[in-house]
Specification:
- The structure is a homodimer.
- Chain A contains ten helices and 13 strands.
- The first copy, chain A, is an alpha/beta fold and about 290 residues long.
- The first copy, chain A, has a single domain (about 1-165, about 200-225, about 260-275), classed as Rossmann fold.
- The longest helix of chain A has 22 residues, at about 80-100.
- Chain A is globular and about 55 Å long.
- Chains A and B meet through helix 4 and helix 5 of A and helix 4 and helix 5 of B.
Chain lengths: ~290, ~290
């Protein structure tokens, strides 16, 4: 298949593009940033500009739409930037997908659910996000599903767990902890560290994208979330076990998302996807990569 | 109070601006279109351009944020336009409101709820919109409520019923029926006409905005919907009773929103608002105005 990966210069985009290559697909990367990979055709462009999105989609069977303002702190500070990239961007992707008969696989997030009304959260759980990042990611998801219904572009949205793996953004909690510990600086946990995340390895997420590219599922959402919850405190302790340093607790950071238990059972049944990387192995791999 | 009304050249914006004037408030209109009203200062500007929004907000106590892509058919055809005006626009309004300490009263819509999970729908009902219009209106509402929480700008969102009154858009169902009947052309109902709407008169909506401007309620949503449901068939029959013409039935229009019974009890208790215009009077007034 010929697959366009938006956000291909970002953490998840790179993992998805690389995994598509190993599976024998032809990959084009699309990103604001310039990229360099010998096996990937690269298009530098802006999701907010329909002309560049439309031109990029020509000749592709599938769009893995991963490009977004994915930094929650940036989204809180500049919500208009998140709205433009994440909502207008999805509208552009939906329109270009419809024009050029390309299927869309969208990188949504478990954070669209908001506070749990029941747990574990399945895909029928109401969505009530309260942060500019998750609000705009959900609106983008819905714009794409609406494009499927109104303009007949097949759309499958993957609601991804908090991802980790090599090449994480410097302001992710993993990188902050690891970078501080390696310098011997103290690690400060915001809040009591009891809140957990179902950290999902980028290799598992990349596998889900490849399955989704070749699936016929459409007009649907699927949770792509690893089953085990790791608390922030456990994460910090694992880092400190590798690079001993002081561990302290600070006040919670405003806008941090409360934890919720999310089920990926539907993805197992319908897409044949299960997380394969256990946290210990994924964490060791990440530490070794640094 | 000094009130900025966005979308002041539109149907609802005009009603709200006029009612604010009669209540002794100083009104500034903001719209893409040029406007003309001797008692209203006018600023021509674009919600998608932060500079023009920010400059317009200076010196106002309240923003009645009504400007939007409000035409559902336009939103379906050009979802990126709806995303820009309705989501990026709200992000700009929230940011400007925070900068200049202005309260925001937002024109949301009952259509944000999507298919009812229970009826009557109150403000705690989950929101699951599926059309680019309602998706972007809800995202805008949530961006503003998030701005209240993150940046301390007081926001009250009014989820308005389907509005009617003098000056309706030519492609509203009222105007289409009335204009056809007056010309003696047949009226075609899309579907069986059994679907109803809680048509809410613009004068009642304008009253709700004025109450909301002077209220302290914030970080909240309130349904502003008249209690009586009128079916499309009843509406058509009322028009035909005034201007006799042929009445026929066609296939449903894709993207039309299914009806749902919405309760405005909370607005009665918390804002002291109830619809005062009964449909017969409002309809007669509208017919006389044409």
């Amino acid at each position: 298949m010929r697959v366009l990966v938006t956000g291909a210069a970002g953490f998840l985009g790179r993992h998805v593009a690389n995994h598509l290559l190993t599976q024998g697909h032809a990959v084009t990367g699309f990103d604001l940033a310039r990229g360099g990979h010998p096996d990937i055709r690269w298009i530098q462009g802006d999701l907010g500009d329909f002309g560049s999105v439309d031109a990029a989609v020509v000749g592709h069977d599938v769009i893995c739409h991963i490009g977004a303002v994915g930094d929650v702190y940036l989204a809180a500070e500049q919500p208009e930037l998140a709205a433009r990239a994440n909502v207008v961007g999805c509208a552009h992707i939906g329109r270009a997908g419809a024009s050029h008969r390309a299927r869309v696989v969208y990188a949504s997030t478990w954070e669209v659910y908001g506070s749990p009304r029941y747990e574990p959260i399945d895909e029928d759980h109401p969505c009530d996000p309260d942060h500019p990042y998750s609000i705009t990611k959900l609106a983008g998801e819905r714009m794409l599903i609406a494009a499927d219904r109104l303009h007949d572009v097949p759309v499958l949205a993957l609601r991804l767990g908090t991802s980790y793996g090599s090449g994480l953004r410097p302001n992710s909690v993993f990188r902050i902890f690891i970078d501080k510990a390696r310098r011997g600086d103290p690690i400060t946990i915001q809040g009591d560290g009891a809140q957990g995340r179902q950290f999902t390895h980028a290799s598992d997420i990349a596998r889900a994208f490849v399955l989704a590219c070749t699936s016929d599922l459409r007009r649907r959402t699927l949770n792509i979330v690893a089953p085990v919850t790791i608390s922030i405190k456990e994460l910090a302790e694992a880092v400190v076990a590798r690079y001993p340093t002081e561990l302290s607790f600070g006040s919670p950071r405003p806008g941090d998302v409360a934890p919720a238990l999310v089920s990926a059972e539907r993805a197992a049944h319908e897409l044949g996807w299960r997380a394969e990387m256990d946290f210990e192995s994924g964490f060791s791999e990440l530490m070794d990569a640094h």
